[in-house]
């Protein structure tokens, strides 16, 4: 995935990395649920 962060301030960089991580995890769980045939309610 090559994540490139360009921000001013450590807090903003941490927030941006955290949001990118959250997005990746959500996409991953959707992929795995579809692969397993699990349909969320």
Ranges with pLDDT <50 over ≥5 residues? none
Ends distance: 30 Å
What is the structural class?
Answer: mainly alpha
Q: What string, H for helix and E for strand, traces the elements in order?
A: H
What is the arithmetic mean of pLDDT?
A: 87
| Percent of sequence in beta strands | under 5%
Radius of gyration, CA atoms, in whole angstroms: 14 Å
Main sheet attributes: strand count, strand direction, barrel closure:
none
In terms of quaternary structure, what is this?
single chain
The amount of helix comes to 55-70%
Number of strands: 0
Characterize the overall form.
elongated
Summed up, the domain count is 1
* Count of DSSP H/I helices: 1
Explain what the structure shows.
- This protein is mainly α.
- The chain has one domain.
- Helix content is 66%, strand content 0%.
- It has 1 helix and no strands.
- The protein has one helix at 10-36.
- It is elongated, with a radius of gyration of 14 Å.
- The termini are far apart.
């Amino acid at each position: 995935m090559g994540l490139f962060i360009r921000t001013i301030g450590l807090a903003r960089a941490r927030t941006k990395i955290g949001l990118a991580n959250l997005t990746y995890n959500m996409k991953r769980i959707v992929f795995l649920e579809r692969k397993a045939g699990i349909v969320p309610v």
